[in-house]
Each structure stands twice: as C-alpha cells, then as structure tokens.
Amino acid sequence: MSIELERVTVTYGKGAKRFDAARNVTLSVAEGEAFGLVGESGSGKSTVLRAVAGLIPHAQGRVMLAGTEMGRKRSTAQRKMVQMVFQDPYGSLHPNQTVDQTLSMPIAIHKLGDADRRVSAALEEVGMGPTHRFRYPHQLSGGQRQRIAIARALILEPRILLLDEPTSALDVSVQAEILNLLSRLRRELGLTMLMVSHDLAVIAHLCDRIAVMNRGEIVETTTADALAAGDVQNPSTQQLLRSNKGFDPSGGDLDLLDAVPIRG
Amino acid sequence: MDAPLLRVRNLSVTYPSDDGDFKAVRNVSFSLRRERLGIVGESGSGKSTTGRAIMGLARPPARVAADELLLGDIDLRSQTERQLRRLRGKRMAMVLQDPKYSLDPVMSVGQQIAETHRTHLNSSRAEAKLAALEMLNAVHIRDPERVYAMYPHQVSGGMGQRIMIAMMLIAGPELLIADEPTSALDVTVQSQVLSIMDELVRERGMGLILISHNLHLVSSFCDRVLVMYAGQIVEICDAGRLADAQHPYTRGLLAALPELGRRREELPQLQRDPAWMDDIVTPLETTSGKGGA
Amino acid sequence: MTTAGTGAPTWRSWLLDPAPASRRQARLGGWFRAWLAFQRNTLGMVGLAIVILLVLIAAAAPLIADPSTALTQVLEDRLQPSSWAHPFGTDELGRDIMARMAFGARITLTIVILVSLIVVPIGLAIGLPAGYFGGWIDAVLMRLTDIFLAFPRLILALAFAAALGPGIENAVIAIALTAWPPYARLARAETMTRRRSEFIQAAELQGASHLRIIATQIVPLCLPSVIIRLTLDMAGIILTAAGLGFLGLGAQPPSPEWGAMVSTGRAVLLDQWWVATLPGIAIFITSLGFNLLGDGLRDAASGRG
C-alpha cells in the first residue's frame, strides 16, 4: 500500500504565535518500500508521521493511502490500513492494562473475533510468549515493551507501519534486536514503512530512501548509500552527517552556537 | 608523574530490597589523572550510580563502601555532608542530563551562577556577577548580559546545558563528572556543547569523567574508556583502541551497532553470557597500559 | 506457576508470580502488591483499623446493645454515669449512650456511603469530558463547577433544610451538592495530563471512540486520586454531617446521630460530661481514622510507579 503526501501543512497556534510544524511536505512512498525521515527535533518529522497516521485532523494538504484520499475523520476500515509504533515504550502502553488487555482492545474495536488466538499469534510473531501475556508494562523491560507496541501495531494487519523513533529509548543491544525484528517483519509481511529517527545509522540500516527535514520542510531527499558516501548537497544534511560521526576535536562550529534561537 | 586526581578502589554501592541486597556497583577500581575518562554502559550497568557515589550523592538507603576513594589527598569516604557540600563545586562538580531539573526555576540563571561563586569563593556581589558574566562568555554565549537576566524556562536545551557547565565550573573544580550531558540535546547542539566542554577541560587542566550509553560518542571524545556491565568494570582501554577490545560484552556491543555505510541484513545480537555477572576479582589493567588502574 | 523449589504453590507465590497465566491472576496480583505497599505504612494501617471498626460496630450494633435501650426513654435512669448496665452511662432521657453510639455509627456510615455514591459519579461525569474535550465544553462545565464551589457547605445545607425540611436524606443531598466540585476538578486535571499520552494516541489510531477511550483508558487512571481524595474528605463530610445534626438539621430525634447527641448533651456538659463528650470523641476518632487511611493510601500510591 503506497503513501502519497501532497503539500501537507500543519499549523499550530493563532496570531503572533502561529507557526508551521510542517509546511508543503510532498513525498511518496511506494508499496513495500522503507522510507526514512530524519532531522532535528522540531524539524517536523514526527508531525508528518502523525499526519499520515490520521492523528492531526486539522492538517491541510492531501494524504493518500493506496491511492485513496484520507478525509478529516477516518473510518474504522481506514484505521486498519495504517498503524504506528511510538518512541517511548513506557508511554505508549497503558500502565494499568495487561499485555493481554492492550492487545485485545483493537480486536474488540474492529470486531474481529477470535481474540484469544490472535493475541497469542501476535505475541509469538514478536518473539514473546504466554508468560508475558498477563504482565503489566512495569513488569516488562524496555525492549519487551517495544515488542508489545509492535505486536499491537500489527494485530490489525495493517499494510503500512509508521515508526516514530522506535529505538531511541532503548539500549544498544536491545536496539539491535528490535531492528532485526522490524527487518524480518517487513520482509515477511511485505509492509510499507515510514520511519522517523534522528540517528542516521539506524535509518540507513532499515530504509532505502531518506528525506531530510528542517524547520518543517523537506530540504533534501537522498538514499542510504549516498548518505554513507557523504554525497549530499544541503547544509542541514551535512550538519547531521557531521554530528553523527561523534565528537570532532577540531573545534566544530562554535560560531554557529548562538544561531540556536532562544526560546520564550 | 603527578599524583592522580581521583583514586577509586573496590567501590561498591548496595541497595537493600525486598529480595535481599542488590549491588548496583561492585568491585569498581580506577584512577583518573588530568585526562578524560569515559564510562560506558547500558541501563542498569551502574555507571550513573558510580558517578553519584563519587560525588557523595548516593544517599541512604544506598550503602557506599570502598577500600579507597580519594580526591587528591582527601578521603571522600570520611567526609561529612557539610564537608562534601564544600567540596562540591570547589573541587569536584557534576553536570547532569537535563538542566531543567538542576536549575532553580525562580532565580535568574545569572544569579545562580553568581551564587555558586559567592558560596565557594566568598566573593562580593559585584565580583561574583563579573565572574558569572565571564563564565557565560567562556561557554560561548553571545550577549552574556541579556542571558544573565533570563530565567531557566526561557532558555532552550543547548543553552541551558552551557549555563549548567558555567555554573559548575565557575569555582574552579579540578574534576568534572558529566552524566549523559548531551543525551537530551539535538544532535547538532550536542557537538557544540561537547566542544565547549573540551575547550574548558583542556584550558583548565581538569580531569573529566564522561558517563554515557553512547559508545561512539565516548570513544571519540575521551582518552580512555571504561565499560561497565551489571555493576562492574569489564573493560578498560584507550579510546582509539576500542576495536581491539577484549571482553566479549564490549565486542558484542560494538558489533550490534548499526553503521552508516555498512549495511547488514541482520545485526549480530548480543549473546549475554551469565558468566559476565560473576565477581571480577583481579582489577583490570588498561589495554596499552597508559597509567593503568 | 511455582517459583523455584518448595512443593505446592502458596497463595502468596501465586499472587506474586511474575508471569501470571490469566487475567484474574494478574489483577489479583496487582491488588495484592498494592496491599503490600500500603501495609508498610503504620499510620495508614491504624486508619484502616479504625474504619473497619466503624463498619463492624455499625453492622453488629444489635449484637452490642439492645436497640430498644437506644430509643426508649427511661426517665428514672437519666444522666447515670458509667455502670455495668450502661458502660457509657445514660443521656438526659435515660437512653443507653453506648447503644446510641453503636446505632449512631450506622447513621454515620450511611451518610458516608451515600455521599460517596453521589459525589464520585457526578465529579467524574463533569470533570472527564471537560478535561478530554477542552474548548467550550470545558469552559461551560468548569463555570458550572465554579458556581457550586462558591457555596459554603454548611450554609447551603441550612438553605436546603429550610427549603425541604430537616432530615437525614436532605442533609446527605446538601452535603453531596457542595462536595462534588473538587472531584470534577481532580478528574479534569488528571484527564488533561493523560490526554496527550501516547497510549491514548495509540487508542485513537486504532479507531477507539471517545467513549471507549474515556471509559477504558482514562477512568482507571483518575480513580486512584479520586478515591484518595474521597477518603481524606470523609473527615470533613462526617464533621459537616455532625454539624448539621448539631444544628438540628440532620437526623431527627430520636435518631441517635452523633452530632445531635453532642448538641443535646451541651446542656449538661459540666456535670454529666459523658453525654456530649463520648459522641464527640467518636466523631473525632472516626474523622481521624479516615484521614490516616487517606494519607496511607496516598503515600502508597505515590510510592508506586
């Protein structure tokens, strides 16, 4: 299932405090493709993701999934098409609900029936078992919670999976497990993926094409290989690449420092 | 060879719990000269607890014990809380992850920096203000007068962190412990804050302990790296020699990192060996012994 | 299901099993852990004991004393001090004080339960939508809340009594009407805090209706603070009820309501102190008990994750 965005714009605030979280964002993701969105925080990448997810009713522009334009309110059937995995593995699961309850809710909403079998199957698919089924989130590790979040996203059998910094809050060793899980699932289920991250290595690992965002706009679209080769035009992208290489003892751009705007 | 700034021998931090005592840190030994030492580990490795224990911030119910915990020639184990408060800021300082939680929200940032100066150096208000402005300059804040009067909520992440650094270094400590100082910052701002820390630490001849989960960052910024796992140090090596790491945990961690330009179908997953939890009895030597443990 | 080693699973190990095998086990396990956290607080346990004692006395009142001694006037036995026949003495109409206090506990408990049953649903019904939807719904509901918040409790109760006549039902309604606003505010605050949580967004993403989200996701998060608040409020409610009784607006004679007992005992306070003081002590201990219980619950709740 493909994704097409045409001049998507999201504005918040009124009057003097009005600002565009995303402005004229146009991109398309082919079916089965893994597309990455990178940028600093505040660049609008998470906003774009949420617009695709249908979590921003007041977004302007067109969002098309599999060629069908999505309206302000999405029908239940449309909700099934796209699901999301959030960044904070603790915040994305209800603290007072067991894994079983969390996974059963989407089944109940969509009246899919056969809840018991579906929940077991979903757990197995993400490498977890019946021992985890009735635990509460605080009884699970960060990696386990993220697996549950992935299981929840997949239980409705969506064709599109959105990922908002899925491994940022995880340890390196756990990150590797989750990234491998996501690769496998994408292969096996033929999912279309749109992923957001600030970590270029993680994005390049999973995604083929990558768009760089800055202050709400897409400034460059490139590929993982081009990024690796440093073959990029836009200064924001170059800056991202430099920062990703770790600390540069030659002093870096200390003059750029107060170009960082003061909040308030 | 001058004496080490910090000597730690057999440090342990124990927390009582319902299921018996839990050792968050154990058998930790290392020494620090005027160099940069990175402590790397995943969550639960004990790296932050180690930093706090050195600063005397691991409060009861935590029990801190060590054969040696020397800052210069001061035995940190025997200091009272009052004595520790005098040491903190003057001899040793700590920068934390989120400046929001370390800055007093009802005082202007300049005043807080000046207050630190007055507390430790007994200066007058005017002297302290001047010193604070100079410090704001030293952390590359353009227009220090204006920032002096600002309140913490008006200041964004990177600038807040620089203000923290200014506040922590103004009394001239010789040891700086930075616990995930850049983790909450944007990637571009991260390198800038690190450059400032680099500059200040170098100019003042300080010793720095950088605690982070980011192996990449620590190896590019520090001289030596300590790797912690389950409360213990499992590896000490020169930052540049990380690729030659001995311990399977370190090697496993390095292998599990995705790398730009090296696309692998599947990332090798870390296989945890339960033997890694066993107490390490013989203290480690730095691989390529430059001032070993 | 058992943990390492020793024989048959005990209740405790079943409840604390880190890998529950059913919803029921998980839920009961959660309650049990909460109980363990609560019981560490000594004062909270004292409060709980007092409240349980209140309930037991109220339930077992007919076993403690013959109901007729609480209501029948025996004028020859007026104002007797403590004796075997009347451990707490008798009041100005010869009625056994201990019996009256025991049956009075029933009245106190009734007031407490009725007020709770009215106040919590109203508070949630107003606070939850206000916090969830925001905008004009929030504005309207909060102004409504402000109006009720403006009335001092006792004055409104007096107004009600004047309008509807005195009696315990009216007293309960009067108290409840002024007691619900803080709960609406509490529910609204909790809702606003959680509104932007990612698990709520996940629920929206799945297509959950507003009602489903509010009922299944947000209510469980609001309930703990509402219950804690209610427990702490109990003391005030009991005192207000006693105050109304004292003013003659609560339960009417010959009902053995504690506040009314204090009021009628005033006349003989200096010579026969027990007539007014003992019910007064009962009011005090009960309020204290609820307060301690509420504190204990709050400490246990904030101690947990």
Describe this structure in words.
The complex is a heterotrimer of chains A (264), B (293) and C (305). Chain A has 264 residues and is of the alpha/beta class. Chain A has nine helices and ten strands. In chain A, 34% of the residues lie in helices and 24% in strands. In chain A, strand 9 (209-214) and strand 10 form a beta hairpin. The longest helix of chain B has 18 residues, at 187-204. Helix content of chain B is 35%, strand content 22%. By secondary structure, chain B is α/β, with parallel strands linked by helices. Residues 287-293 of chain B have low confidence and may be disordered. In chain B, strands 7-8-9-3-10-11 form a six-stranded mixed beta sheet, sandwiched between helices. In chain B, strands 1, 2, 4, 5 and 6 form a five-stranded antiparallel beta sheet that branches. Classes of the chains: A alpha/beta (264), B alpha/beta (293), C mainly alpha (305). Chains in contact: A-B, A-C. The interface between A and B is large, with 46 and 51 residues.
Q: How far apart are the first and last residues' alpha carbons of chain B, in Å? A: 15 Å
Please state the oligomeric state of the protein chains shown.
heterotrimer
Mean pLDDT of chain B: 87
- Termini separation of chain A comes to 42 Å
Helix content of chain A: 25-40%
- Strand arrangement across the biggest beta sheet of chain A: 6-7-8-3-9-10
Q: Strand percentage of chain B, roughly?
A: 15-25%
Helices of chain A, by number, come to 9
Low-confidence stretches of chain B are 287-293
The count of strands of chain B amounts to 11
Largest sheet entry of chain B: 6 strands, mixed
Please tell me the overall pLDDT of chain A: 86
Poorly predicted runs of chain A are 257-264
Helix-strand pattern of chain B, N to C? EEEHEEEHEHHHHHEHEHEEH
- Evaluate the radius of gyration of chain B: 20 Å
Which terms would index this structure?
heterotrimer; A: 264 residues; alpha/beta; six-stranded mixed sheet; four-stranded antiparallel sheet; disordered C terminus; C: 305 residues; mainly alpha
Put the structure in a nutshell.
The complex is a heterotrimer of chains A (264), B (293) and C (305). Chain A is an alpha/beta fold and 264 residues long.
Q: What are the SSEs and their pairings?
A:
The complex is a heterotrimer of chains A (264), B (293) and C (305).
Chain A: E1 3-12, E2 19-29, E3 34-39, H1 45-53, E4 60-65, E5 68-69, H2 76-81, E6 82-85, H3 99-109, H4 115-125, H5 142-154, E7 160-164, H6 172-189, E8 192-197, H7 200-206, E9 209-214, E10 217-223, H8 224-229, H9 235-244
Parallel strand pairs in A: 3-8, 3-9, 6-7, 7-8
Antiparallel strand pairs in A: 1-2, 1-4, 4-5, 9-10
Chain B: E1 6-15, E2 22-32, E3 36-41, H1 47-55, E4 63-65, E5 68-71, E6 74-75, H2 81-90, E7 92-95, H3 99-102, H4 109-121, H5 125-138, H6 144-148, H7 157-169, E8 175-179, H8 187-204, E9 207-212, H9 215-221, E10 224-229, E11 232-238, H10 248-256
Parallel strand pairs in B: 3-9, 3-10, 7-8, 8-9
Antiparallel strand pairs in B: 1-2, 1-4, 1-5, 5-6, 10-11
Helix pairs in contact in B: 4-5, 4-7, 5-7, 7-8
Chain C: H1 11-15, H2 23-39, H3 42-59, H4 61-64, H5 67-71, H6 97-133, H7 135-149, H8 153-164, H9 168-179, H10 181-195, H11 198-206, H12 210-246, H13 258-265, H14 274-303
Helix pairs in contact in C: 2-14, 3-6, 3-14, 6-7, 6-9, 6-10, 6-12, 7-10, 8-9, 9-12, 10-12, 12-13, 12-14, 13-14
